[in-house]
Amino acid sequence: MLAELLQWNILFPWFLGMVFGVFVGATPGLTATMAVALIVPISFYLPPNAGLALIIGVSFTAIFAGDIPATYLRIPGTPASAAATLDGHVMAQRGQAQLALGLDLLCSCLGGMVGVGLLILLAPQLARFSLRFSNFEYFWLAVLGLSMSAVVSSGRTYRGLLSAAVGMLISTVGIDVVSGSQRYTFGSIELMSGIGFIPVMIGLFGISEVLRNIWHPQKLRESAVTGQVGVDGSELRRTMWRYKGTLLKSSTLGTLIGALPGAGADIAAWAAYGLAQRTSKHKERFGQGTPEGVVAPTSANNAAVGGAWIPALVFGIPGDSVTAIVLGALLMYDLKPGPMLFEQSGAQVQAIFVIALVTQLLLLPAGYIGIKTFRLILKLPRSIVLTAVVVCSVVGAYALRNSLFDVYLMVAFGLVGFALEAGRVPLAPLILGLILGPMVEENLRTGLIKSEGSWMPFVNRPICAVLILILLAAFLGPLLFRCIKSRLGRAQTEPG
Question: How many structural domains is the chain composed of?
Fold first, then answer.
């Protein structure tokens, strides 16, 4: 099987697609979903294995490449890279961008391997478990994801929760998910489809960064990357070995979340970051440029890409928007996802598994090319780079729906982001609230309709109970730990 795939007529479009994925992923606003959507029509003119290699290669590299501008410029290339801005950019400001991106690349590769490995070994079992999630379980899963805003926020927890609440409030604009009535549209046709998180994300992270630099004009004459220190292989290996536990648990969590239909790599990245901080011996270092804060989200988001294939292949249910597009491509290749796929098209399924594994290895050279190319561009004066950032941001926001309204939204939220950061309110929870807000509302209201207004199914179902316990532990655990530590300290200082 491997020898059949390693032919030039397959390898050439495969690697070319991965380079295209790096370009799209590193451009703010151009998501992995958009990259796959653009490449699928081309794949129909290729043999099945070459077409599948093209699609899989683009999806994995685009998720990784979003970390490149997130690290250098604090602008996530894709929504799944938003968590990478927290520690990766701080490392870049200290001259450790090469170390941060080296970790990004290796963790994306290894996390993807874990995700694909679990896909191969546990696909039917994990997919069967994911189908046990109803509206009641998805509600608590989304609330748990929102609670990560308290974890990832620097400074006071209430500021992170306030930011998340603002994000949820913004997510209610548009058509009511249950009744179909308009909410907060003020007669605007553009607002009927809601406020998309892509222009909001670009504005909050991209335009606000430009405004911060304009506020300090002396920075505009400097190069975008200054004082960057190279990294040797031994330092990279030592850092990876030090955080091998974080890599493994984040990759596993990313795969499990990816296997839940509709969850996606962005939620996986935030959840892994929160888990890593909660279980770390040095919680206070998160958000201050710790490599552990880079390892966790970058290994989880690529693992989630592999996990999303589990329900897609076994039950024909897309795990995320990328696999939703891929399902259409599989049907074009006369592959019918579902329980019988492994029996009727076993050879093709094996080919998909091998392609996904080899893609992780090809990610290393493709990602290295992307990192080096981006670094060369950033050696230009910061004023030129920021001008390019504004142009790419406008293109990215406009390309989403071919609407100037999204460009106006981007500019407006750039001003909002600049003001919030001036007040030391973190931006990341706002994005998380905007993404998860519809999931919380839809599942809460649909669940209440199913239960005829009763809250009992939200608390007495086994999976719901487990998620509630995790949520309580996340908030009350640190408080109890501090109380116990304080009492032990007083006991030791008391005489006799």
Answer: 1
